[in-house]
Design goal:
alpha/beta; globular; 4 strands; Rossmann fold; 6 helices; about 40% helix; about 170 residues
Length: about 170
């Protein structure tokens, strides 16, 4: 088996969506993919509403931290095969030059951290974001990566990001 493909999920604050995507990919990638997450302006802590979902996936809260994308652009950083932005703000920012020229895509997901209301209503927003991310991750995992050239793979990654969301509350 070849080495796992590394996926970096980006969001501005690296506290909710990118953290959820990291957990989902690491759970479902099952050794084929290894995910990490970062932000352009990290909040410095994981949103507490993301933690129950992370735990449901079998991880500990301590397995995740809000960190800068600079860690992954620095010399000696692990090679990244895919960089996927999950918020519209991060997609519009000037990203660092990623070593190795990874494939990039934008999979915008509404920010559950902006949800208001009761704890239950906020939890629903986080679950919806996780389901949307999960749907897109499943599509990436189903791609015949060995059979796709770089142009075709880029087209598929972009298409995944434009799919209508089917998640419901």
């Amino acid at each position: 088996m070849s080495a796992p493909l590394n996926v970096l999920f980006l969001c501005t604050g690296n506290s909710a969506r990118s953290i959820l995507a990291e957990a989902l990919m690491n759970r479902q990638g099952q050794g084929r993919f290894r995910a990490c997450s970062a932000g352009s302006m990290p909040k410095g802590q994981v949103n507490p509403h993301a933690l129950p979902l992370v735990r449901e996936l079998g991880f500990e809260a301590a397995d995740f931290r809000s960190k800068s994308w600079d860690e992954f652009a620095a010399p000696g950083a692990p090679g990244i095969d895919f960089v996927i932005t999950v918020c519209d703000n991060a997609a519009g920012e000037v990203c660092p030059i990623w070593p190795g020229g990874p494939m990039t895509a934008h999979w915008g997901i509404p920010d559950p951290a902006e949800a208001t209301g009761s704890d239950e209503e906020i939890a629903v927003a986080f679950r919806q974001a996780a389901r949307r991310l999960n749907d897109r991750i499943e599509l990436l995992l189903a791609l015949p990566l060995d059979a796709l050239d770089r142009v075709s793979l880029q087209r598929e990654l972009n298409a995944i990001g434009t799919l209508a969301d089917t998640a419901t509350a």
